[in-house]
Amino acid sequence: MNAPNANQTRFNQAAASWDENPARQVMANTIAAAMLAAIPIESSMTVLDFGCGTGLVSLALQPHVQRVIGIDITPGMLAIFDEKVRAYGITNVETHCLDLCTQSAPDLQADVIVSAMALHHIADLPSLLPTLVQLLTPGGYLAFADLDSEDGSFHEDKTGVYHDGLERDWLISQLQVLGIQDITAVTAHTIERPTGSYPIFLISGRKPTGVKGNG
Predict the structure, then answer these.
(1) What is 52-104 written as a DSSP string?
(2) How many whole angstroms separate alpha carbon 11 and alpha carbon 61?
(3) For residues 79 and 97, is the Cβ–Cβ distance under 8 A?
């Protein structure tokens, strides 16, 4: 069984060298491009990136919006993200070290909530998803990228891995129950490894106007 802070420990240890893998940068840019294609992004919007890590997806989206909020449970990852923000002179990005599975968000609201490769690290997704929907402004958009369900060969180290990918239909049904509409699913990226090909889906949808919470 994974320890409660397994992901925090895992990603703190990996933070310093995380961005050195060029395949991660390619994947982040490809996912961000798919998000921009799926959502009608406007320059006045606030984007919240759940499980933002070192900010690879956040920083690809940042030039297109007014404000980016990065949320992650891993101080080491956020330290790298904050260093890049300072180095690039970026003024519209903020980060929060926050576990939305156990902590309340400090009055955060976003027009768009994105997540890339984080959901399969969440033990209780049915409890997290309503929290994310509640943080979304009425009429706002969700865009979640993650591994398609796979045979367990993707992760050599399964520390903090609670799902061997996710079934698209399951996630879509969960979002539908929460009132999300206009849901679409595409393959945003494919990771090629000696153990196989691993598609990354992007599921996006819109929260109806006039809906404040999850009903």
Answers:
(1) -TTSHHHHHHGGGSSEEEEEES-HHHHHHHHHHHHHHT--SEEEEE--TTTS-
(2) 22
(3) no
Rounded to two decimals, the pTM is 0.92
For residue 59, report the phi and psi dihedrals to the nearest 5 degrees. Answer: -75, -20
pLDDT, residue 211, reads: 53
Complete DSSP assignment for 24-38: HHHHHHHHHHHHHHH
Do 38 and 103 meet the contact criterion of CB atoms below 8 Å apart? no
Length of the chain measured in residues: 215
C-alpha to C-alpha distances, 212 to 54, 69, 179, nearest whole angstrom: 30, 20, 11
Domain 6-192 classification at class level = alpha beta
**Burial class of 113 by CB neighbour count within 10 A (0 to 12, 13 to 18, 19+):** buried
49-89: pLDDT as tens digits: 999 999 999 999 999 999 999 999 999 999 999 999 999 99
Please give the residue that has the higher pLDDT: either 129 or 157.
129
